[in-house]
Amino acid sequence: MKNIKHSSKLHLVTTHLEALLNSQTLSYGAKLPSIRQLSRQLAVSTSTVVEAYERLLVQGLIYTRPGAGYYVAEKHNISDIHALKINPEREVDPLWISRQSLESSSDLLKPGCGWLPSSWMPEKLMRKAIKEVAQSSVTDLVTYPHPLGYLPLRQLLSRKASNSGVTVYAEQIMLMDSGTQALDLIFRLFLKDGDCVFIDDPCYFNFHALLKVHRLNIIAIPFEQDGPNIQAFQEAVQQWQPKLYLTNSALHNPTGAALSLYKAYQILKIVEQQHMVIIEDDIFADLEHHIAPRYAALGGFEHVIQVTSFSKTISAAIRCGAIMAKPIWIDRLINLKVATVFSHNTLNSKIIYAILTNSQYRRYVDHLKIKLQKHMTQTINRLTALDIQPWLIPTGGMFLWCQLPNQLNSTALSKACFKAGVMLAPGQVFSQSESAQHFLRFNVSQSQDPKIYQVLAENLSILTTDASR
Q1: CB of 401 closer than 8 Å to CB of 391
Q2: d(CA 247, CA 242)
Q3: What is the pTM of this model?
Q4: Rounded CA separation 339/328 (Å)
Q5: What is the structure's pLDDT at 378?
Q6: Quick one: DSSP state of residue 394?
Q7: How far apart, in whole angstroms, are the C-alpha atoms of residue 360 and residue 358?
Q8: Looking at beta carbons, which pairs linking 120-123 to residues 24 or more positions away fall under 8 Å?
Q9: CA 167/CA 300 separation, integer angstroms
Q10: What distance in Å separates the CA atoms of residue 183 and residue 308, rounded to the nearest whole number?
């Protein structure tokens, strides 16, 4: 309790000083109140004032003259970290959703974003885990970890993988700072400029963005309600001779579909014949109600690499991901990891482990799945009332892939709604096919505010009227 009181008083003093620095009354070199003066004024101890001044000092916002007090270092507005202005007219590309979601104000409604609301996340589990990890030995807090990462977490991931029928040992798992970083490392190892990679059509928009960064030839394979179109896959293999196929097997992003056993076997046969590699992004496993087939479960890791992370169910701020592959590839990936990023955040790995092994985590996930299912039904009902139809009814997860009425353009609708404070996810960022222009992806956990449907209705009406002219 004493620490809490100290923290709140320190915040009071710091806030007061920041307000002074932000004001128009103090110029460069102006003297700030003395320690005793500010202590009396704010009714706090002199030690609290000293700590507040020290914090501003290390930030370079004030400076001190020995024996003469503290002074304004420069005219600086503490809160004025100029964010890039959001341009609603910017090109709608694979990074459009991420940029708009991350850079916009907190009052923007985000049914198009890819994460759960903050209030849904396991805050108590996170705080407990962070406190627990903070008690680690000084060696654990300051030294580099083993290149593969924290062994207890790798062993836990090995056991969790068996829930999906995947057999993988801890020595075949390498921890990374995120799923995206894991994919980037895999691309560096296997690909060079101009190599061909297959993706699903539609697929997660950041797959497009990351593949373009690596200057790869991207071929999109039509994705159906039970997986990729087999004929299109086979014909494209013969024409393009791809190196990799990047996909989600379970709770596919953006469609919410799940891979069927039949298609999984057919794709694996083609991949083995062509000596391709499947990159199976499996970040939604904890949100499944029914376990979908995994390529890694059916074919092992001879032609498959799995990637996972924890940003969807635990925290996007505690970055941690993992690569699962056969030993020879893991060994090469270790070399590349050391050469490019050297190490990873092992404290995050330990925090994730502490959360996953807490007895409350399973209950949290079970409750989360029920909550998502409820919101899925509510969102479908609200959207169908506007004649926005789901492509399929997902068996779990957070995403709903929907078709607009009257062949309306989802990009035009998204830009119009963004101006009204609602960020949507237009089909164009997930696919370059013409049909995708009439689709939107909805995150059902972020789609409960009535304003979303009011804005949708108003702009659907405007676009329909314009189209009929």
Answers
A1: yes
A2: 14
A3: 0.86
A4: 17
A5: 97
A6: -
A7: 5
A8: 120/368, 120/371, 120/445, 121/314, 121/315, 122/314, 122/355, 122/360, 122/361, 122/364
A9: 7
A10: 10
Residue 65 has a pLDDT of 86
Structure confidence by residue, pLDDT tens digits, 252-296: 999 999 999 999 999 999 999 999 999 999 999 999 999 999 999
Those residues whose C-beta lies under 8 Å from the C-beta of residue 158, and which sit 6 or more positions away, are 168, 169, 170, 172, 173
**Structural tokens at position 397:** 């997860």
Domain range summary for the chain, segments of one domain joined by +: 2-72, 96-112+363-468, 123-357
**291-314 burial string, b = 16+ CB within 10 Å, else e?**
ebbbbbbbbebebbbbbbbbbbbb
pLDDT at 23: 72
pLDDT at 434: 78
- Residue pair 394/450 in contact (Cβ under 8 Å)? The answer is no
Question: Helices in 23-174 by DSSP H: which ranges?
Answer: 35-42, 46-58, 96-103, 123-134, 138-142, 151-161
Instruction: Establish how many alpha carbons lie within 13 A of residue 294's alpha carbon, considering only the half-sphere containing its beta carbon.
Output: 28
Amino acid residing at 444: V
Burial 8-26 (b: 16+ CB within 10 A, else e): ebbeebbebbbebbeeeee
Output the CATH code of domain 123-357.
3.40.640.10
Helices within 78-226 (DSSP H only): 96-103, 123-134, 138-142, 151-161, 179-190, 205-213
The helix or strand, by DSSP H or E, that contains position 462, with its residue range, turns out to be: helix 450-468
Contact 290, 250 (CB under 8 A): no
Q: Both tokens of residue 297?
A: 């479960």
- 96-112+363-468: CATH class: alpha beta
Q: What is the pLDDT of residues 408-422, one digit of tens each?
A: 999 999 999 999 999
Radius of gyration of the chain (CA): 26
In the chain, the amino acid numbered 346 is T
Phi-psi region of 60 (alpha: psi -120 to 50; beta: other; left: phi over 0): left
Euclidean distance between CA atoms 294 and 301, whole angstroms:
11
**How far apart are the C-alpha atoms of 205 and 223, rounded to whole Å?**
14
Q: What dihedral do alpha carbons 156, 159, 163, 165 form, nearest 10°?
A: 130
**DSSP strand pairing (196-201 vs 244-247):** parallel
CATH of domain 2-72: 1.10.10.10
Q: What torsion do the CA atoms of 371, 374, 378, 384 make, to the nearest 10 degrees?
A: 120
CA torsion sign for 319, 320, 323, 327 is: positive
Hey, what are 143's tokens? Answer: 């030294």
Q: From CA 436, how far away is CA 425, in angstroms rounded?
A: 11
Q: Mark the ranges of the chain whose per-residue pLDDT is less than 50.
A: 1-4, 78, 80-84
